[in-house]
Design goal:
Blueprint lengths: L8 E7 L5 E13 L3 E6 L3 E4 L4 E3 L4 E6 L4 E8 L2 E9 L3 E3 L2 E13 L5 E4 L1 H10 L4 H20 L8 H10 L4
Parallel strand pairs: 1-10
Antiparallel strand pairs: 1-2, 2-3, 2-4, 3-6, 4-5, 6-7, 7-8, 8-10, 9-10, 10-11
């Protein structure tokens, strides 16, 4: 598995359980990449939706992916603090320099005061039926939702004080 070098511009692709493309982030700077973890930074990057819509991210963000956890975390740096958007997803993989994962609908929005809201439970129920998620996936996602919430409450991993700010400072060294 070829892992791009730090400083490389990578594409991030998310898919749905049935294999259809869900969303593409056109350009993210890889800050740290191994077979086990990827940390990227982007700012005002183009995003392509499967329905043909495109949009541009509004603020700088640090993205965290791990090969052993069924979630990824995006820390968005805003005027009033760091907001996190967490996707319940398959662990990431590298495919010809593209970071890929399966999006499993459930999301968690975390506010600067570390309170959080679970989002898209209705979408998860709908897609679980439509795409026939196996019971094992449901169990894995429930277990990983608990892990994610524990990380938020304990300020662990990408929620640790300074994590997003420190990686953002490093991201700035790659901007011209």
């Amino acid at each position: 598995m070829n892992v791009p070098n730090s400083g490389s511009k990578i594409k991030i692709e998310s898919y749905k359980h049935n294999g259809t493309l869900h969303r593409i982030w056109k350009e993210t700077t890889l800050l740290k990449g191994t077979t086990q973890m990827a940390i990227g930074g982007n700012d005002k990057t183009e995003v392509y939706e499967s329905d043909g819509r495109t949009w541009t991210t509004r603020e700088p963000a640090i993205c965290y992916f791990h090969a052993e956890h069924w979630f990824n975390v995006i820390g968005m740096l805003r005027q009033d603090g760091i907001y996190y958007y967490c996707n319940l997803s398959s662990p990431f993989t590298w495919d010809k320099g593209i970071l890929k994962y399966i999006d499993y609908d459930l999301d968690v929005k975390v506010y600067p005061d570390m309170t959080y809201t679970i989002l898209d439970e209705d979408e998860y129920v709908l897609h679980k039926e439509q795409m026939q998620y196996p019971a094992a996936i449901d169990e894995i996602l429930n277990r990983n939702m608990k892990t994610l919430i524990t990380w938020i409450q304990q300020r662990k991993g990408p929620f640790a004080p300074g994590f997003v700010d420190d990686w953002y400072e490093y991201f700035l060294t790659f901007r011209s």
